[in-house]
Amino acid sequence: MRYAVTGAFELMTPAAVRAELVRNVQSKRYLSERIAPAALEELAQVLNVQDERPVVELMVDVPTVRDLDDYFVLVSAIAVDADVLVSGDDDLLVLSQLLERPRILDPAAFVAELQTLGYADP
Description:
Blueprint: H1 2-5, H2 15-27, H3 29-32, H4 37-48, H5 68-79, E1 84-86, H6 90-93, E2 103-105, H7 107-116
Parallel strand pairs: 1-2
Helix pairs in contact: 2-4
């Protein structure tokens, strides 16, 4: 998030993903113990001000996604012509070798790439 605030990249987060994030943090004890309500609210506000482009029905070849919830995330990334989809979700990460675009990276690999491109740790 700190990199997005500095302008290192444009963050696009669909409303459904934002809602899922809030719901998971609030309902999962291991997350709610680590993320304070004020921090969650601040994160949700940052995500809400980001670009929300409409997702249209796409007639594209999309690899089979093991988790149907991830299908929406993948199609959303394709719809906005994202360069990179950042996710720690194994069901999405396994697709990284099947797609040229968007590239699917886990958060650590994405931060490492930003640093390689010369973006200092904010």
